[in-house]
Write a structure and sequence with these properties.
- It is a single chain.
- By secondary structure, this protein is of the alpha+beta class.
- It has four domains: 212 residues, HUPs (Rossmann fold, 3-Layer(aba) Sandwich); 73 residues, Methionyl-trna Synthetase, domain 2 (Beta Complex), CATH 2.170.220; 146 residues, Isoleucyl-tRNA Synthetase, Domain 1; 118 residues, Nucleic acid-binding proteins (OB fold (Dihydrolipoamide Acetyltransferase, E2P)).
- The chain is 39% helix and 18% strand.
- The strands form eight sheets. Strands 3-2-1-13-14 form a five-stranded parallel β-sheet, with helices on both faces.
- Strand 6 and strand 7 form a beta hairpin.
- It is globular, with a radius of gyration of 29 Å.
- The termini are far apart.
- About 5% of the residues have low confidence.
Length: 706
Amino acid sequence: MTTREILVTCALPYANGPIHIGHIVEHVQGDVWVRAMRMAGHTVHFVCADDAHGTSIMLRAEREGITPQQLIDGVWRQHTADLRDFRVAYDHYSSTDSATNRELTYGIWRALEAGGHVESRPVKQLYDPVREMFLPDRFVKGECPVCHSKDQYGDACEVCGSTYTPMDLIEPYSVVSGARPVEKESLHFFVRLADFGELLKAWLEERRAAGGLQSEVVNKLQEWFDAGLRSWDVSRDAPYFGFEIPGQTGKYFYVWVDAPVGYLAAFKELCEGGSKAGLGAGDYARFIHADANGTELIHFIGKDIIYFHTLFWPAMLHGAGLRMPTAVNVHGFLTVDGAKMSKSRGTFINARTWLDHLDADYLRYYLASMLGPTLADIDLDLKAFEERVNSHLVGKWVNIASRCAGFVHRFFDGRLAATLPEAEHARYAAAAEKLSVCAALFEARDYAAAVRAIIEIADEANAYVADKAPWLLAKDEGKRDELHIVCTLALNYFRLLTIWLSPVVPGIASRAFDFLGSPVSRFEDALDPLLGARINAFTPLATRIEPKKIEAMIEASKDSLQPNAAPTASPAPAKPATQAKTAMNESATTATPATTATIAIDDFARLDLRIGKVLGCEHVEGSDKLLRFELDAGELGTRQIFSGIKAAYAEPGKLVGRHVVFIANLAPRKMRFGVSEGMILSAGSGGADLFLLDVDAGAQPGMPVK
């Protein structure tokens, strides 16, 4: 076998909020692949970083009264903890705000300039006169010029699918301030993608033929070539959090320029940091130079960022004299119970919420059992998840060890038989041979097929144990030798399954190897049975999932202020700003209702909206979403209100003294943390993207809002 040297990355999580289970799909897919390739004997380096620049980060930091650097540092710590606890084992996890990334970004930019691939020209953009800033497309909303749906983003309508420019919107407004934007001209910088058109076509077809790009991806990109490659706008105007373009005051690189460079920066930092893998500073050039023969660069990404990784990124690399990716592996989206993840249903589950309730390996196993090499979406059916984990991991795998280990300790001093009879040895060899195909399946990212093959052998092992019935053999002193052989083969079945499952469920597998007293680092170790070895006392390696744990996780993920009895009507927003939704990322998409049902003035009058002054605000222990407010409500006294905005306000103490708007006549809701006596109003799409409504000076606690 030829040993390969591979650099693997996963797409960078955006540093504007917590990681959720949709993100985890990609990181698990990459981690399983890396672990499997290492067990196949290859040398693999695995790096990632936080995507730490952009308008959204700048605005969130401003809202929280901290610097962008403080914000991204805190999110970085949260992201690394979540990924670590999901057993995603990066060799190095960096940030795109690093000095190394700045240096590499500037180097690529200067090479593109020197090659004549950069142009500049004035561009008309919408400008927020209140915030004094140019607005990215997705920070402008208005009425679709085609189907006239309300509240559509400035680049595309999510109702009819039409694309347009923000200037085409009817009655546009800024999602930052709610103000009507004005047109203003600014000098922008572009990379001429057409310069790389023929190169990119050839690279795409070459990679498809070599298995480095799925055919669905190449076919989709053909639409861009058919339309003609347009120059890529790579600049943004101040105020902006990012890297300033060299020699251009007040001009910054668009986040998608320096974000993929973060892959290279993370690897460079790994090479220069005394790597445990034996890398040195010279290895960076060996992997990244244009003629980096004998090494590979492989990306794992979601299908929403195909264009950036298969057009813009390869063009940037080639223009700078650097190697282009060997493969870009694309996966589909995650749905839960057949639908898009939803905060109201509790299926928009943050990574930490999952970890608070369920083992990370359980989700890793389920995802692996669903992941194939295509772009098909994956559905987390929570009932099927429960049944699959309980049946496969506990009932078919771990149960083999739990049924046999006790006999080995009771009768054979904890030691396996030194030899196996020919029939049992042949049975083991046949099972090992059947599973040897899994190495190629893991490499091809057909994890679902690998899991199916593993479970077939688990069924075979359990049938063997059931047929031999060691619990009956143990009752007959004359059958001790047979009992020893049966338990030894059964535990070798268990070890065989553990070896092949270890890339998928590394936490449980590590405990299993500890029990066997024999760690394994290569798939080839599965070829021979473990004989004559002493095993340790068996302790439970995995337990069945109780439905109440899933129910508790869903409850913890729900929007926390749904009333027990919903009001008969809800007020229509009086100003566009109250219904604004800020994109988490300038390239993200968030579905919003096309229209809001009209109501009568009498319906609005039924709501008692009041001003409240924040007397106290604190995190709620045991909840990753709630803050507890104590409000001075004037003549109404004090009110306790729980609000699900923790992700947007990391330092709740800074809200003390602020005035907010709340619904005073909402039926009190009894929660496990206490009674919530109202609902505080905020604007945004949820999670980290929420903004408390502000109140002009002079407004007093208890005043009605009309």
